[in-house]
Design brief:
mainly beta; two-stranded antiparallel sheet; 1 helix; 4 strands
Length: 56
Amino acid sequence: MSELPSQFTQDDLTLLALKINGETLNIDHGYPCRIIAPARPGVLQTKWVSRMSVLA
């Protein structure tokens, strides 16, 4: 399990990606979905998201 720092969760450009270039993500790209957060290094982009919790 990993936690995405609030600076990224609060960025309107952070997204939960289900597809890349119109195609469903494959396992190497993080199937079933991945989080893409602007200004976060690529090696830290969260792959293989299967569950997420939102805390208010």
